[in-house]
Specification:
The complex is a heterodimer of chains A (341) and B (477). Chain A has 16 helices and three strands. Chain A has 341 residues and is an all-alpha fold. Classes of the chains: A mainly alpha (341), B alpha/beta (477).
Chain lengths: 341, 477
């Protein structure tokens, strides 16, 4: 051991003069900047809340905040699945239609067979559409954009056929339990918000802590390398769309509970808002990158921005313009960040 | 004779001294090979010449006139043309359109409306191709051509600018032997036209064939500047790495025992335990397909691959873009094929992963030693080490290597060769496809030459085991 010691000492002195260690002094600020860029969504959310608080005294009121969270909850559940699909290198435009389909089916089944069957039926309808999307993308190799554009239109058509365009309400409403689910509270927060939080935690754990989650990132980052590593790429892709269908289906059920009806026109533009939220959260549209909690931050940014503009009395047409600008700006900043690293 | 003179050029990026006091000259009608490992400063020097970076100090003169380029376009107009590693061609356009991409001849219809003068374009392109004696159909769609042919398009495009200095950045990294020979003859024809050529390379073996002079860079300095025609590989390698290198063929002891047999065409070649079977073949000879078939990857379903992995087979593809998930960490890339083994229930067993990744990074000397870095941020050599590390963690019996040291530095290459030798000594079997004939001869116990998916000849290790015999079998003698 003693004979080796001088060797080690020498190795260490040599390493100290290597370029890596010489640049140590510059690493700290660079890492700080990287941290800042990594957490831009949270900074934006904080700034947005600050501005909203300063410009309207109603923003921080209990009723407004619960309202914001309630609005965010359904979109958050949709965005969980969207984050999975986008990290896995895909895209899903059909979620808005699935929200309507699942809401209507859940309401119909609930009226006949009770609440458990209703919720299950709504969720399963979403999974079924998701599996169709996944098979068309993975097996038939249709681009995700076109495949899900197709199901988006198709599913909306099915909803309208099933309901003949009229909301599913039932003669005496959808029952007390379902009403409680949609408008009840627990520990000061609406139940829908709790459900969204629990789902986000579970799916975040799966995405970031499990072997399955790592495979999702691999398939999105490089399908060929994943294939040559023995990953079942097609099956994983199908599972991603199934998960996205599941969360969209659950969101549809939650929305039906909130609205106390299955609305055939529900969920319009949800796909776009949800994709915008994922992009605001910094996930890469080409796949392989992203964090679930950041997508949730993206959802909050979208909802709070709309809320703040409402409180400020901004004309609703101008609100759309503002939201569009924010989405483009977020994507541009993200591109800048990527260039830097 | 025109003469490009680089005088005492230094360049610093943050705390890294990329170039320190570099002086170098190249004359028209000469090929200067610029050697160096990754990070030696070759790219920085080239980027300064191409107007992408500005030097901090020192100057560059051309025929005694100081020159200074603020933009890549200025350098191009000044006659310094670079052929980069990633070829910029438009796949949907024709060969002719690609060659004259930024100087398409225009005819004005009725004196106003511009339209492409197809006849003039064809005439110019045909003359350019004839000058270089390149046989390419000007009408062919560029996207339908091989990498080597696209490279010729880019070189012809460079020539259309009438360059005084032509810089080729590792042009042979993805070429077959025969394509390399064709490239060299084009380079030599350009040289004979009086162009000064700077040829950047990793590969010591090709220097004598292409270069008149050779400069070696290390740590931002020029550490050797040799006149041809002899370029002793050992001296070059030593200059590149700064330590003596062993480049001669290693001892190979056969262990014996047939593990499996390799079906090629109608024949079946036995694979022995503890041996390396070398595959040689020109482009389209089916070597890569053969390896992919052995790995179960040609069926297009993942069950074939998983079965192969379960049988202890591993495949390191020739393109690193197919081997690694670039924006994922070193750590996750290494355990990707074995996630099931490194999980407890659903949850990843991070401690076990840390252990195995730590061992592998140590064993393969992956630098920097930070497992959380994305693989895309590593040098080519270190990326390739990660591609090896992925599989060396498993219970491996048959290692399938496709161009395992393509475009990586000498030190990384030597290390990977050592690991291959170690693996066979422990009783493993390797099938190696390489267009680097020296590597093939160095590592293999037997070389099989393929032509269009069939065995064209075999060459066991023995008296007649050498480059000349191999070239004869390949038909490129």
């Amino acid at each position: 051991m003693n004979a080796l010691n001088p060797l080690f000492a020498q190795a260490r002195t040599v390493r100290n003069t290597s370029p890596e260690s010489r640049s140590m002094s510059t690493i700290a600020p660079r890492r700080l900047r990287q941290h800042f860029f990594d957490h831009i969504p949270i900074v934006v959310l904080a700034l947005l809340c600050l501005v909203a608080t300063l410009s309207s005294d109603r923003f921080l009121s209990y009723s407004n905040l619960t309202n914001v969270l309630l609005q965010a909850s359904v979109m958050a559940v949709v965005t969980i699945g969207m984050t999975y699909v986008i990290i896995g290198g895909g895209f899903d435009l059909s979620v808005g239609s699935v929200v309507a389909l699942s809401g209507c089916i859940a309401a119909e089944v609930l009226l006949k067979y009770g609440i458990v069957a209703g919720v299950l039926a709504g969720a399963l309808a979403g999974v079924a559409v998701g599996i169709v999307n996944g098979v068309v993308v993975a097996k038939l190799r249709v681009s995700p954009f076109i495949a899900t554009l197709g199901t988006m239109v198709l599913v909306r058509g099915v909803v309208l056929l099933l309901t003949q365009g009229t909301p599913v309400v039932g003669d005496e409403g959808l029952g007390d339990t379902f009403t409680a689910l949609g408008s009840g509270g627990f520990l000061g927060l609406p139940i829908l918000v709790w459900i969204a939080i629990v789902l986000a935690l579970i799916f975040s754990w799966v995405l970031h802590q499990t072997a399955y989650g790592t495979r999702v990132f691999a398939v999105g980052g490089n399908p060929e390398a994943s294939f040559l590593s023995g990953l079942p790429v097609q099956r994983i892709t199908i599972s991603l769309y199934a998960i996205c269908g599941l969360t969209a289906g659950l969101a549809g059920v939650l929305l039906a509970a909130r609205l106390q009806s299955g609305q055939p026109s529900a969920g319009e533009f949800y796909e776009l808002t949800s994709i915008a939220a994922v992009v605001l959260g910094g996930a890469a549209l080409q796949g392989g990158e992203g964090k679930l909690y950041k997508s949730m931050v993206g959802v909050l940014i979208m909802v709070i921005l709309a809320n703040a503009l409402n409180l400020l009395g901004v004309d609703s047409y101008w609100q759309r313009v503002a939201i569009g600008v924010v989405i483009i700006a977020a994507a541009a900043v993200d591109q800048l960040r990527r260039k830097r690293s | 004779m025109s003469r490009l003179e680089i005088e005492h050029v230094s360049k610093r990026f943050g705390a890294t001294q990329a170039l320190s006091d570099v002086s170098l000259s190249v004359v028209g009608g000469q090929v200067l090979a610029l050697l160096g490992e990754n990070g030696a400063g070759k790219s920085t020097l080239i980027k300064i010449l191409a107007g992408i970076h500005q030097p901090d100090s020192g100057r560059i003169t051309f025929d005694r006139e100081p020159i200074h380029f603020d933009t890549p376009l200025a350098a191009l107009q000044g006659g310094i043309v670079t052929v980069p590693q990633e070829l910029r061609i438009v796949p949907s356009l024709s060969v002719a359109q690609n060659i004259l991409l930024n100087q398409l001849p225009v005819q004005r219809w009725a004196g106003v409306l511009p339209r492409l003068d197809k006849a003039a374009m064809l005439a110019r392109v045909e003359k350019l191709l004839a000058d270089l004696r390149i046989e390419l159909d000007p009408h062919a769609r560029a996207g339908s051509l091989s990498f080597a042919e696209r490279q010729l398009i880019v070189i012809a495009r460079a020539l259309a600018h009438r360059p005084l200095v032509l810089i080729l950045d590792e042009p042979t990294a993805s070429l077959e032997k025969r394509e390399v020979d064709r490239l060299f003859s084009v380079v030599h024809r350009l040289r004979d036209h009086g162009v000064a050529i700077i040829y950047i390379s990793h590969r010591l073996d090709e220097i004598p064939a292409v270069a008149d002079r050779c400069a070696v860079m290390r740590d931002g300095r020029v550490v050797a500047d040799l006149e041809g025609p002899d370029f002793p590989p050992a001296a070059l390698a030593e200059a590149m790495t700064g330590r003596p290198m062993q480049l001669s063929a290693r001892e190979v002891e056969p262990v014996g025992g047939v593990t499996t047999s390799l079906p090629i065409g109608q024949q079946s070649v036995p694979l022995h335990k503890g041996e390396v079977l070398g595959l040689a073949g020109l482009l389209g000879s089916g070597t890569t397909q053969l390896l992919r078939t052995l790995f179960g990857a040609e069926g297009g379903t993942s069950s074939g691959v998983r079965q192969a992995v379960a049988q202890g087979r591993a495949f390191v593809p020739g393109e690193r873009a197919k081997a690694l998930v670039m924006n994922m960490s070193i750590r996750d890339n290494i355990v990707l094929p074995h996630l099931a083994r490194y999980s407890r229930g659903w949850r990843r067993d991070e401690k076990a992963i840390d252990r195995v990744v730590g061992t592998m990074m140590e064993r393969l000397d992956i630098r920097p030693r930070n497992p959380r870095l994305p693989v895309g941020s590593l040098s080519g050599g270190n990326q390739q080490k990660v591609a090896f590390a992925k599989w060396l963690t498993s219970e491996l019996q048959l290692l399938l290597l496709d161009e395992p040291t393509n475009g990586i530095d000498v030190a990384a290459k030597a290390l990977l060769h050592d690991r291959v030798a170690e693996f066979t000594r422990a009783g493993g079997t390797v099938v190696l496809n390489s267009s680097d004939l020296l590597e093939l001869l160095d590592l293999s116990h037997e070389v099989v030459v393929l032509r269009q998916g069939h065995v064209a000849g075999t060459m066991p290790r023995g008296a007649d085991f050498g480059e000349a015999q191999l070239r004869q079998l390949l038909g490129v003698g």
